[in-house]
Amino acid sequence: MRRLIPIGVLLLTVALLVWGLLSHHRGDSVDAGAVYYPVLDTGIDGFERAITPYDWSFPADYGPHFGFQTEWWYYTGNLATDEGRRFGFQFTIFRRAITPNAPASSSEWRSNQVYMAHLTVTDVETGQFVQSQRLSRAGDALAGATTDPVFRVWLEDWQIAALDQEAQHTQITAATTDAALDLTLEQVKPPALQGDEGLSPKGGEPGNASYYYSLSRLITRGEITVDGTPYAVSGTTWMDHEFSTSALASNAVGWDWFGLQIDDNRELMLGQIRLQDGGTDPAFSGMLILPDGSTRKLDAADFTITPVSTWTSPHTGATYPAAWDISVDTGEAQPLRLSVTPLVDDQELIEGISYWEGAVRIEGDATGYGYAELTGYTGPMQGRF
């Protein structure tokens, strides 16, 4: 659940070991999954914490919040050609601060910020799952985030960039040798503030929380390229932006997260933090987003997520849930009952920390598509960030 605490924090911390905080040499992109280092705990002293509700101001808050240690911009979409060939994609850029303040230096190479990006494409027809990641420090504008003059986040030539001053239209561009995205996204609903006006607790301790909002339905058009073949596609994308200085509780194992876009123009964010004793943390909540953009907070007691089958990875040997029955109290006479299944079983990322994140289909009382993220199935997540 990247909306909880980013899967990339471990790999972002690797940047400190790869380049060093005050390196003077140009840092090229690195396949951080090729190396595995233990976490270097840089501490949280001096960073801002998510403790009270946040005073939001858009479009400024689409951009970076450098006072917090960790931040990410996360996009997942389900797209199709006019002929009905379906694709899923994930594109995420993470920011990690090594220290609360930038180093005092005139050198363009010195920076206390490191960035990582994940790109995946799921070709549902063939079952192909393409994954790639990049890692870079912010020195010499190799990577960064800004709202000057407009919202933009980038890691080298992978970027999310606003096409207008209010960031109502954005563009994602990213390419590897195996896949590429060139997509335009139109915002049709206001930001949905998760938790308590955007304060999203992750546990019982004050500060163990994030500031979190979603753009739950972005009308998306453009081109996806797989193995050199471009496809004109359209559909919808879910965007999460979250920033925090916190960590999972010591008894947390991992999380399951769902961003579901229903065909009747509603969306659901549902999640659960799994604990060592087999239970779930009651602090985390969900949200129902209505067609007009209004929202209804869902407490942990308002929904259930029940796995009904499993899939065992041929890459890591981990066994993941592979389908779910979900019941949600939406305030109506009867609960909303959904069946959620992966469009492709093998959507496991295996670079660095392994986890499953992929496109899913919604059936039952409503239909649609979405994304799910499953962590902690190859080993507990606590102590890794």
Quick synopsis:
This protein is 3% helix and 48% strand. By secondary structure, the protein is mainly beta. Strands 1, 2, 3, 4, 5, 6, 7, 8, 9, 10, 11, 12 and 13 form a 13-stranded antiparallel beta sheet that branches.
How would you characterize the overall build of this protein?
The chain is built from 1 helix and 23 strands. The strands form 2 sheets. Strands 1, 2, 3, 4, 5, 6, 7, 8, 9, 10, 11, 12 and 13 form a 13-stranded antiparallel sheet that branches. Strands 14, 15, 16, 17, 18, 19, 20, 21, 22 and 23 form a 10-stranded antiparallel sheet that branches. The radius of gyration is 19 Å and the shape is globular. It is mainly beta. The two termini are 14 Å apart. Residues 3-40 have low confidence and may be disordered.
Entry keywords:
single chain, 385 residues, mainly beta, 1 helix, 3% helix, disordered N terminus
Question: Any chance you could write out the topology, listing elements then pairs?
Answer:
Blueprint: H1 9-19, E1 70-80, E2 86-97, E3 113-123, E4 128-137, E5 143-146, E6 152-155, E7 158-162, E8 169-175, E9 179-187, E10 192-193, E11 199-201, E12 209-226, E13 229-244, E14 252-262, E15 267-275, E16 286-289, E17 295-298, E18 303-312, E19 319-328, E20 336-342, E21 348-349, E22 355-364, E23 368-374
Antiparallel strand pairs: 1-2, 1-13, 2-3, 3-4, 5-6, 6-7, 7-8, 8-9, 9-12, 10-12, 11-12, 12-13, 14-15, 14-23, 15-16, 16-17, 18-19, 19-20, 20-22, 21-22, 22-23
